[in-house]
């Protein structure tokens, strides 16, 4: 479903834009690509697949194309779009893979280019630098944030695995988000928010103790977004 947002920040759902998936399909994320193309990863479907749509000016969606996950027990989860090229990336947590996809917005087509293995275990959610050169994945089972050089968008090259502090929180990253300035990467681990410094070469350093979020015990924050004030 799409939403209309006023300059005052009032959010209104566009009722006619609703797209229904099969029960249990589990769509988990959407990315908006140039040319008003939207790609949704449908995680829990059998097989897991990417669904492409055209977003019209009235907020409604036109179905374009679907692309199944590679053969085998593979499922999509996190996705992120390159800001400088016609590629996007998708994580395959159970297989420890990072998939590279190309798209043609005018035709509404999606194609798989390649996949690369990650050193972290269960890579889930992704973030990418504003210049499109550095990609980050949160690795849930290994408690790490992995960084990749994607200067060549079709050939992600592993650079670093940063082990997260367990001083506050459980050290298990559930989501990551880049701040608009490109200087910090944020990660959620249970009731902790990690503020990670991004160096000039794209590498990561955790220099501060994670912030403890003022939330009830047992709460598990999932989504994460950043706004520059």
Briefly say what this structure is:
With 229 residues, the protein is mainly β.
Description:
The protein has a single domain (14-176), classed as YVTN repeat-like/Quinoprotein amine dehydrogenase (Methylamine Dehydrogenase, Chain H, 7 Propeller), CATH 2.130.10.10. It contains no helices and 19 strands. It has strands at 3-5, 11-13, 27-33, 37-42, 49-55, 61-68, 79-81, 87-92, 97-104, 109-117, 123-128, 134-139, 144-149, 157-163, 175-178, 184-189, 192-198, 204-205, 211-212. The model has no long low-confidence stretch (mean pLDDT 93).
Structural features:
229 residues, Methylamine Dehydrogenase, Chain H, 5-stranded antiparallel beta sheet, 4-stranded antiparallel beta sheet, globular
Summarize the main sheet.
Answer: 5 strands, antiparallel
End-to-end CA span: 28 Å
On the 0 to 100 scale, the average pLDDT is 93
Helix content: under 10%
Whole-number tally of structural domains: 1
Any idea what the CATH architecture is?
7 Propeller
Number of strands: 19
Question: In angstroms, what is the radius of gyration?
Answer: 18 Å
Global shape: globular
| Alpha-beta classification | mainly beta
Give the amount of beta strand, in percent: over 45%
CATH homologous superfamily designation: YVTN repeat-like/Quinoprotein amine dehydrogenase
Count of helix runs: 0
Show unreliable segments: none
SSE topology string: EEEEEEEEEEEEEEEEEEE
Q: What is the name of the CATH class?
A: Mainly Beta
């Amino acid at each position: 479903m799409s939403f209309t947002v006023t300059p005052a920040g009032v959010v209104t759902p566009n009722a006619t834009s609703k797209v229904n998936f099969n029960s249990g399909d589990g769509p988990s994320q959407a990315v908006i690509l140039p040319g008003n193309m939207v790609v949704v990863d449908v995680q829990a479907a059998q097989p897991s697949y990417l669904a492409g749509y055209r977003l019209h000016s009235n907020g409604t969606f036109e179905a374009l194309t679907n692309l199944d996950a590679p053969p085998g027990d593979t499922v999509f989860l996190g996705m992120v779009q390159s800001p400088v090229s016609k590629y996007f990336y998708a994580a395959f947590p159970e297989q420890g893979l990072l998939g590279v996809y190309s798209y043609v917005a005018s035709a509404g087509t999606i194609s798989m280019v390649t996949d690369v293995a990650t050193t972290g275990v269960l890579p889930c959610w992704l973030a990418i630098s504003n210049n499109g050169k550095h990609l980050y994945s949160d690795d849930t089972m290994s408690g790490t944030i992995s960084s990749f050089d994607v200067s060549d968008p079709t050939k992600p090259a592993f650079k670093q695995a940063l082990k997260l502090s367990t001083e506050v929180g459980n050290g298990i990253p559930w989501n990551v988000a880049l701040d608009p300035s490109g200087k910090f990467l944020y990660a959620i681990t249970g009731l902790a928010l990690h503020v990670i410094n991004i160096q000039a070469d794209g590498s990561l350093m955790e220099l501060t103790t994670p912030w403890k979020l003022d939330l009830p015990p047992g709460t598990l924050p999932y989504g994460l977004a950043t706004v520059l004030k």
